[in-house]
Each structure stands twice: as C-alpha cells, then as structure tokens.
Amino acid sequence: MIDSNGTSDFEPVARALETLLRGVTDDLLTCPTPCERWTVGDLLDHLMGLTVAFRIAAEKGPDAAPAGPGNPSVAKLDPEWRSRLPVQLDELVAAWREPAAWRGETAAGGVVLPAEIMGIVALNELVVHGWDLASATGQPYDADNRTVETVSRLVSQQASSDGNPGLFGPSITLPAGAPLLDRVLGLTGRDPGWKS
Q1: pLDDT band at 74, cuts 50/70/90?
Q2: Does the model's pTM come out above 0.85?
Q3: Residue 125 class from Cβ within 10 Å (0-12 exposed, 13-18 middle, 19+ buried)?
Q4: Which domains does the chain have, with CATH numbers?
C-alpha cells in the first residue's frame, strides 16, 4: 500500500507470504507451479534470492545478481529456507521502510531503475509469486487491495501480448469486471484459474 510519503509498505504482502510458508510441507516441494518448469522448491529458491537482492537494492548496495536471476533448473533450495525466508522477508520490509530506499537509482538482477520503480517491482514479485505459491500448494491467498492496485499500475505498463522476457509471459486478457488481482495475474501471463 502507498503511504503519505509516496512509498509502499511491504508488510501486508510479506505477512501473507509468510503465512503461506507455514503451509508448505516437504511433499509439496516437487509440485508444479504456475511458473512454467518451476517446482515449489524452485519458486522458494527464487524467493530466497529475490528477498536478498531487493533488500540490497533498497540499501543501495552492490547488485547481488548482476547477471540476472539464476536458472531455476539448477537451483538448489537452501535446507534452512523455513527459518531463513521469514527473516529475509522481515529485512526486506525494514529496508523499504527507509525513505532513502525510494530515492535515487538502484540495481537488482543487472537492471538499473529509479528506486521508486524498483520498489514497486519488488512488491510485484512478492504479490505475484505469493499467488504462485498459494496456487501450487492449494492454499488461499490474501493480497491486500491497496498493494494490488499499486502493482497493477506497474504491470499494466510493462505487459505485452508477446510477453516481456525475463519479466512476464504473454499477457492473458480478462474481462474488465474480473477481480483486480486476476487482471494483474493475466497481465503477467498467468491464468488465474490455474490448478496443479
């Protein structure tokens, strides 16, 4: 959600994601996700990496992944993910609460952007991958409306019927009356009705 300073609070989406983590049992780690060729374990590994990369981006540190995100087919999920990922989410929330995080330019995954855009990109990653995780593990997903509205503005500018390599798949058009989260998912190339 956007606060009075024009920044977004990562707390609601981080808490929603943390709730989902508690529902991921070991037998679900090899299940498919809405992300083509990614298992739940691959998705969790991606979340481990992006929470660090976007925290460093907020802190204006050196890019943690200058060559872009790693290949999920060779990803190896940290066996301590259950204890580490919630801590990394807390650190991400705290980093983007600092007003300085939203000023100037910063880099993540080899991409340099105005920090105010990078923050929304990070927020979008949490929202969309939160939905991916919920869908893959059969859990309900609760993304707060203000956060979804924020990422919707970004996604609607970046989406394409051809996709946006490294960012989104080809967009799926949904009716204007569809829930906003579903429309955001469609713009990122996801079918909101996806089932494992």
Answers
A1: low
A2: yes
A3: buried
A4: 11-187 (1.20.120.450)
